Amino acid sequence: SVAVNLRPEAEQKVVFITARVHPGETPSSFVCQGIIDFLVSQHPIAKVLRDHLIFKIAPMLNPDGVYLGNYRCSLMGFDLNRHWANPSPWAHPTLHGVKQLVIEMYNNPKINLEFYIDIHAHSTMMNGFMYGNIFEDEERFQRQAVFPKLLCQNAEDFSYSSTSFNRDAVKAGTGRRFLGGLLNDTSYCYTLEVSFYSYILDGPTTAVPYTEEAYMKLGRNVARTFLDYYRLNSLVERPLAPTPKTR
């Protein structure tokens, strides 16, 4: 059957995910891989998500930096995650392309860009956690906290206590900050961070080293959290799918 949101006259709800803007942050690729693998699987939750949402994923925003083995910069020596405000098609082509697509969707009345998530890895913090934006509107600020709280329930390695909302000047050129300022108040923009090395379970003394599989599991749990979010907001009827835990 044709997905509800793919009817020509229906509003399309889009989730946009990007990763690996900093080439040294390899865990972000495994998290993104977990999201992709889950979404294209035959898992009943994945089928429901495909029926109701459109996922657009740019899994590697800095391919030249990855190829060169750079830690943070592109071939041109730019930290791409500081150039979202005015990306050059010549110097920052991946950002330019993604930004043009985002603006195109934003200007299309039939498309609602609901989520933007940029996946990174963190060299000093443990666990997975998120950065969000600060808004003057208290109700919008509270709504923004819903997705990370739901993710915390699904993923044992995700920490809501490490999740923070900021508007530091140094972060102004990041995807999360720029798009958070561009998009309307029904859109949620986050940076998803995951530790390079470990996560903590059952108190501060038990650090569990991350593996490639654990990173991909976090990705799967990010994907499944969209069903919880949209069930909460009643886009998806509750009986549509069973909710076995993804491990």
UniProtKB/TrEMBL annotation:
The active site is at residue 193. InterPro entries: Cytosolic_carboxypeptidase (IPR050821), Peptidase_M14 (IPR000834). GO terms for biological process: proteolysis. Residues 1-230 form the Peptidase M14 domain. Its cofactor is Zn(2+). GO terms for molecular function: metallocarboxypeptidase activity; zinc ion binding. The keyword Hydrolase applies. The keyword Protease applies. Keywords: Carboxypeptidase, Hydrolase, Protease. It holds the Pfam family Peptidase_M14. Transmembrane segments: none annotated. PANTHER family: CYTOSOLIC CARBOXYPEPTIDASE (PTHR12756), CYTOSOLIC CARBOXYPEPTIDASE 6 (PTHR12756:SF9). Belongs to the peptidase M14 family. This is CBPC6 carboxypeptidase. It comes from Smutsornis africanus.
